[in-house]
Amino acid sequence: MNIEMIRAAAERIRGHVVETPLLRSAFLDRVAGRRVWIKPECLQHTGSFKYRGGRAAVSALSDETRRRGVIAYSSGNHAQGVALAASEFGTPSVIVMPSDAPKMKIDNTRALGGEVVLYDRSTEDRDAIGSEIATARGLTLIRPFDEPEVIAGQGTAGLEIARQAAAAGIEKADVLVCCGGGGFASGIALALEAEAPGLRMRPVEPENFDDMIRSLAAGEIRRNATLTGSICDAIISPEPGQITFPILQRLAGPGIVVTDAEALHAVAHLFSRLKLVAEPGGAVAVAAALFHADEIAGEDVIVTISGGNVDPDVFITALSRYTV
Amino acid sequence: MNIEMIRAAAERIRGHVVETPLLRSAFLDRVAGRRVWIKPECLQHTGSFKYRGGRAAVSALSDETRRRGVIAYSSGNHAQGVALAASEFGTPSVIVMPSDAPKMKIDNTRALGGEVVLYDRSTEDRDAIGSEIATARGLTLIRPFDEPEVIAGQGTAGLEIARQAAAAGIEKADVLVCCGGGGFASGIALALEAEAPGLRMRPVEPENFDDMIRSLAAGEIRRNATLTGSICDAIISPEPGQITFPILQRLAGPGIVVTDAEALHAVAHLFSRLKLVAEPGGAVAVAAALFHADEIAGEDVIVTISGGNVDPDVFITALSRYTV
């Protein structure tokens, strides 16, 4: 896993991914007490950065392998990213999802061309089901984060940040990244190391689901105690990856933990101030910039929004609860 | 008013305006029956394209004139665009607003550096008040649309569309533009005439407030019967401008009229599919692409979103009423 893979991924996906702009608002600057530069990956195809990794991984396969198809386990953003990327290549994709996943996510994944295979979380073994289908049909598994080509794809957002920050005259700043299994965070960290050494990647996680930040502090992988109960579900994963964790041990700055309430409040700010729809998990880094300003130094901070696939009910809750 | 003024405005405002991307969604394509390319000016500074015209107009003044300050009449997006542009130059700005304007818009205009002067719609004469202040303080009036440098600024969005369409390989398409007084529409039409003659600007207006489309049909300026009662308030103006109307007589393709319900439905689509916050008036062109497909020809359609300054209540109504 190295910068050359990220550069190669950027070449392969150029013209297919949205080069998301860096956006600013004087109002957000005032709340944060510094200049806030927002990288809105909610505007990426399928509504999250996951399309970058999906497209990078599918495009890295040999023609022969790609023709047989790909498989992914996901109830969320990775599912849609892989399904769309596969469709664009005319590649079959099987997405294994729990049968109690939100109907809209199942429908969207199908609409993007994914063949959805449902399993019962309480009685069936996801890996056994997936593995049987993969073997029978010769499908290639695309893991959500612990997969070099996926990390390379996510890292292309870091190359864009490096270029955009240079154009804006930012030489030194923290880059706050919403962190689940660490694919987005480690890809961006590697890109910044090579292209913008004055920029430092710092992971942000929701309270009680800060496995990466606790693991980095402990120097070894720690699991989350539970995987449900956070409104930031889009970025919850059981534990850091075997590939992502060592990269972040080497490159990550101190992590920041935010509450669900702060994430929702950030969603309302992004609605009012930047006209962006963020999912709560996608807004944790913005929440860190706005409400944990004392944990950040410098005149500029760069902040990712990882995704915007939020149910209307949750979004309405954010707007009703927080007047911005 | 000519293309050279638009090119000059683009030079002056470069690096200050957001170059908004062209965004797509396979889901919107399906509803529209063709490829839909969205130019989201809700992501522009202050949440609407009006900042382009404000910045272009303020930057066109001589140092001496600019030092004295500017004045604008507006309860909406033009107010914020002018206030921010003036602040960036250290120029005083007076914004004359009705005292019953939404408190949030008054607060935002002040926060952006505007000196807000309130008047009572029922007992006071806005023009008399503004004119007295302007004369006493030597302020330059910046009209919302019937002002060459403002039209030039709005036209810079058209230059971007021409460039982005060429990069996407689109040679021939309609460009649907949300139309009030016609500043945005005429600026874009002039830019396309010069830079992308295969692209044709078509105005879109809300039902019962289609003064521009009726005027174009009649061959002379027609007023709206009323100015209140539309949810698309952001793009309602009394009648076409003296400068904008002849430009559109020469260059506009057939207009499209949409209902308030269609505009709200488009707001919900933009939330779900592109993670964008649009105001109903800002979504009329998207509504035309989605729900008036039979009035459009060709495989591609380019669509502007003019702004995203929507009250949470209205946005919640859109999400509650339309499941997308």
TrEMBL record, chains A, B:
Top-level lineage group: Bacteria
Reported cofactor(s): pyridoxal 5'-phosphate
Statement: the UniProt record of this protein carries the keyword S-adenosyl-L-methionine: no
Keyword Lyase: yes
Annotated protein name in UniProt: Threonine/serine dehydratase
One annotated GO biological process: D-serine biosynthetic process
One family name in Pfam for this protein: PALP
Domain Tryptophan synthase beta chain-like PALP as annotated: residue spans: 14-305
Keywords: Lyase, Pyridoxal phosphate
Gene Ontology molecular function terms on file: ATP binding; L-serine ammonia-lyase activity; magnesium ion binding; pyridoxal phosphate binding; serine racemase activity; threonine racemase activity
Family in the record: Belongs to the serine/threonine dehydratase family.
